[in-house]
Write a structure and sequence with these properties.
Strand content: 15-25%
Pfam families: Peptidase_M24
Helix content: 25-40%
Number of helices: 11
InterPro entries: Creatin/AminoP/Spt16_N (IPR029149), Creatinase/aminopeptidase-like (IPR036005), Pept_M24 (IPR000994), Peptidase_M24B (IPR050659)
Number of strands: 19
Shape: globular
Structural class: alpha+beta
CATH class of the largest domain: Alpha Beta
Mean pLDDT: 94
Protein name: Peptidase M24 domain-containing protein
Organism: Falsiroseomonas bella
């Protein structure tokens, strides 16, 4: 079946219900990305620790191929998130002292759920939800609602692309403001905090993933994955600082990267940066309808390998992106997905060298018949902080 982009939430719910036919008798979509995409019900920035509400396992939309969704919400969620965001969906509120199992049975009866249903649940649903549903419907078989929905989500509409472009504008504007405040001796945490503050000033709800810096140079070992240790480090020249961050806008997630050199860059740093930029340009040119994800990765990777830095390009070239920061398909040698117009990817080659100079770049790219369309285009040169 050929699927096309669905422009609005009003289009997406009927399209998803059509896809459910023959695949599932019931779908459970908790508050999160899938429900935001389907029904326009906003999700929030997640907490570090879990906030539990009584009966929280049934929080989300319940629907069938032939019945409109019922949105079940614990009392605290209903009050704090409001009811105006449901866009006409029936809401049933679970009081703090109510029995969630009784409410679930009532929802199943309203939706005509059979005794032995096939239930599609989002991949990001909690195990707690599956356990409780299984207890109420012991003969149920579970399938992935996210996989079913992927046929719709993978191709972005013109509206989604415009929204993502605006997310990119806000991301790049935040970076421009951050650049004005970079100076010798500031810590990595200072720079990260500035990026996050500037994104919120630009109207982003928050960072779409944990803002990261990779700081390398002769006196700066690469401390990937050691945030609390690296955040304390003052940034002194000569070193290269690799930024990786993104702003959100109307449900879409941006992902962006640039390299800033502290101190006057030498020939090695300029070569590393130029190689990364050339690899990205090659990958973007290859990101065209009909090619495969693996071929795009190979095209960009060859530029890095030919320059002698192959082992230092440690990761895939990029990933699908949209309502989540990382989505399939992936630009890697093991992914042979054929690319279609409207798919969006990051193209993010890097050269990572411990105790030497590194570089990375990252932009969101839309797949087009003649090659990729970049959604951010600023700061192509090697950026330098001199004091």
């Amino acid at each position: 079946m050929t699927m096309h982009a669905t422009a609005t939430a009003a289009d997406r719910l009927p399209a998803f219900q059509k896809l459910l036919k023959g695949k599932a008798d019931l779908a459970f979509i908790p508050l999160g990305t899938d429900l935001h995409y389907l029904a326009g019900i906003p999700r929030d920035i997640p907490n570090y620790g879990t906030t539990l509400h009584p009966g929280g396992w049934l929080e989300g939309a319940w629907l069938t191929p032939g019945h409109a969704p019922i949105l079940a919400l614990p009392r605290m969620t209903a009050e704090f998130k409001g009811r105006g965001e449901s866009k006409g969906i029936e809401i049933r509120v679970l009081g703090d002292h109510d029995d969630p199992a009784a409410l679930a049975r009532d929802i199943f009866a309203s939706l005509g759920v059979p005794a032995r249903p096939r239930i599609a649940i989002s991949d990001r649903a909690h195990g707690e939800s599956a356990v409780h549903i299984q207890a109420l419907l012991p003969d149920a078989v579970f399938v992935s609602a996210t996989d079913i929905l992927r046929a719709l989500r993978v191709i972005k509409s013109a509206e989604e692309i415009a929204t993502m472009k605006e997310a990119g504008r806000r991301t790049e504007a935040a970076f421009a403001e951050t650049l004005k405040r970079l100076k010798f001796g500031m810590t990595e945490l200072d720079a990260i905090a500035e990026v996050n503050y500037q994104m919120q000033r630009q109207g982003s709800l928050g960072q779409t993933f944990t803002t990261s810096l990779y700081n390398t140079g002769p006196n700066h070992p690469l401390l990937m994955g050691r945030r609390l240790e690296s955040w304390k480090r003052p940034i002194h020249p000569p070193c290269s600082v690799l930024f990786d961050f993104g702003a959100s806008h109307d449900g879409l997630c941006y992902d962006y990267g640039r390299t800033v050199h502290f101190g006057e860059p030498d020939a090695e740093q300029r070569k590393v940066h130029a190689t990364v930029m050339a690899a990205q340009a090659a990958g973007i040119a290859a990101l065209k309808v009909g090619t495969t994800a693996a071929q795009v990765d190979a095209t960009a990777r060859k530029v890095v390998e030919d320059a002698g830095y192959g082992p230092n390009f440690r990761h895939r070239l990029g990933h699908g992106i949209g309502w989540d920061v990382h989505e399939p398909p992936f630009l890697t040698k093991s992914d042979h997905s054929v690319l279609r117009e409207g798919m969006m990817f990051t193209v993010e080659p890097s050269i990572l060298q411990d105790r030497s100079f590194s570089a990375r770049v990252e932009d969101v790219i839309v797949c087009r018949p003649g090659g990729g369309e970049k959604l951010t285009n600023g700061f192509q040169e090697l950026l330098v902080v001199t004091a």
